[in-house]
Design a protein that fits this description.
Bound molecules: flavin mononucleotide
Helix content: 40-55%
Shape: globular
Order of helices and strands: EHEEHEEHH
Number of helices: 4
Strand content: 15-25%
Length: 153
């Protein structure tokens, strides 16, 4: 049987207006909906935010990712969505998370900003692999430190 497991990685620009408090509330809502809907579609992944931009990894069956990503792309809370990677993979690396989250005051998000600066904010020069590894390493570190954010119950 052909394995139907894909991963998609994209970058986008935050368009949520207002104060940090407002942005924080919107992201809480995005995460709540994502965790519910992704769990129902057996999608796993992670979202990273650094005030300016989002980076997200989605893992799951091809058609489930496509349907989810079509909704995400139409969301007015972000713009300039650039897909870095959409390809078949052997295994999930975010199997613990319906949608793990790395916020803007974290080391990972600062590294994300540094990568953006080094590439002159040119999304085409971004390596999906690098974003993937960054999210993965930091979520596992957060889990070890006792944060269960985004875990499937
Ligand atoms: C940066 C970002 C990431 C998102 N990630 C997901 C996700 O992983 N899964 C999901 O179902 N919705 C995600 N959403 C929310 C969708 O855009 C959409 O609001 C939600 O799926 C509900 O869609 P509906 O109102 O058409 O039912 C995300 C939105 C943003 C702005």
């Amino acid at each position: 049987m052909t394995q139907d497991l894909y991963r998609l990685i994209y970058l986008s620009r935050n368009t949520i207006p207002g104060s940090n408090e407002n942005i924080h509330q919107e992201i809480e809502q995005i995460l709540a909906v994502s965790r519910q809907r992704n769990a129902a579609s057996q999608i796993t992944g992670a979202l990273m935010f650094n005030r300016e931009c989002f980076a997200q990894v989605l893992e799951g069956a091809h058609d489930d990712i496509q349907a989810t990503f079509e909704r995400i792309q139409c969301d007015p809370r972000h713009a300039d969505v650039v897909v870095l990677d959409f390809k078949p993979v052997e295994a999930r690396r975010f199997s613990h998370w319906s949608m793990g989250y790395i916020g803007y005051d974290t080391l990972a998000s600062k590294e994300f900003t540094q990568i953006q600066q080094a590439t002159g904010f040119d999304a085409k020069q971004f390596s999906g692999e690098r974003i993937y590894d960054l999210l993965h390493a930091h979520l596992y570190a957060a889990e070890k430190a006792g944060s269960g954010l985004g875990k499937i119950a």
